[in-house]
Amino acid sequence: MEWKTRGESPQGSSNDKIPLRNYVPKQSQIRLDPRQIDDLIVAYRTGNTIEELAAQFRIHHTTVSNVLRRRGVPRRNRPLTPEQV
Question: Is the whole-model pTM more than 0.90?
């Protein structure tokens, strides 16, 4: 069986080893460049769902929502406001 060393921990040095099959690597962050953000917005406006865009750009659906919000893109299927009711 392969083993991976835990390495340094915030509490101090640790040489404990964990089985590699239990090792979960840190999540890598994907940063969209301005062109990709523009492509994401165009795709959303042409009808793609947030979940489809998340899969296409390999980002979390919350990230897609945040990008749209920051760019001022109105969301589809929003609940009615009290004034609209």
Answer: no
CATH code of the domain containing 50: 1.10.10
Distance CA 32, CA 63 (A): 10
SS3 at position 19: strand
Neighbouring C-beta atoms of residue 81, cutoff 10 Å: 7
Question: Is the residue at 29 inside a domain?
Answer: yes
- C-beta of residue 5 within 8 angstroms of C-beta of residue 15: yes
11 membership: H or E segment, kind and range? none
The answer as to whether 83 is a domain residue is no
How far out from the chain centre does Cα 2 lie? 30
Span 28-80, pLDDT tens digits: 788 899 999 999 999 999 999 999 999 999 999 999 999 999 999 999 876 77
Tell me which amino acid residue 11 is.
Q
Q: How many domains does the chain have?
A: 1
